[in-house]
Structure formats: C-alpha cells, structure tokens
Amino acid sequence: xxxxxxxxxxxxxxxxxxxxxxxxxxxxxxxxxxxxxxxxxxxxxxxxxxxxxxxxxxxxxxxxxxxxxxxxxxxxxxxxxxxxxxxxxxxxxxxxxxxxxxxxxxxxxxxxxxxxxxxxxxxxxxxxxxxxxxxxxxxxxxxxxxxxxxxxxxxxxxxxx
Length: 161
Prior knowledge:
mainly alpha, two-stranded antiparallel sheet, 6 helices
C-alpha cells in the first residue's frame, strides 16, 4: 500500500526520510503555495444553531491573523461548531439535572450516573479530533509552529542555491 501524500513541510518536519532533494523541496513548496485557497467566504451556514454560529465567528476571528483557515474549511468548521453546540447543550443538561439521576430499572427506582455522560464523552472525542484536524488544539498549533520554524530555516538554506 502506498504512503499517503503529505505536505512537504510536514515531510521535512518528520525528518525527510524519503531523502527529497533541495530542488524537489523547492518545487513542491512552490506548487503547494500555488494551491493556496482564499478565505473570503468563511461565514457561518444558516443551518447552524445560535451557539454554533457564535463559535464559528469566534474561531474565524481568532485564527484570522495566523492564516489557518480557508474557504475549503468552511464545512468542516461548521460541523465542528455544530458538534460544539451539542456538547454545550449536553453539558448544560447534565448540570441542570445533576450528575446523579433517578432511573427506573426492573420496576425499581435507582440513583445512577446521568445517561448523557456517554453522549458527552463521544461528543468530546469528536471535538478533539476535529480540533486537531482544523489546527485548533494546543498540540496542533505547536506542530504548526514547529512547521513554520522549519520553513524559516529552509528559506535560509535556499538563499545559497
């Protein structure tokens, strides 16, 4: 099975194990730069709820200066914000109901952990994965920062070529 293609900066960050030449690195960087996408259409879709729209605008505003998102990220960001709203609503329900609730089991009323804890956990996992995909988590931004450091170093290397 062939390896999944990765951006050249990521390949270099991982140690250039494929031993890519300086000329190939430069060619790929130019090609990837030519594929850069605009970010003028990053508006929340109308189907998002109130909380999700607010989160959408917040993320777009906060990431604007680091040029993280583009128009192609609109749908992924919208889905992330939708999941975020579900998480907030689920958490608020748990807070309002209490962490322990009465449940009927075999004609008996017992006190048990809130059943929405399972849903909350699944939503949290989805959010974490999507944050990483979008570059919104601290570790994802740290990787981006490392990538930018590698880019700055390499630009200096190519000055002599």
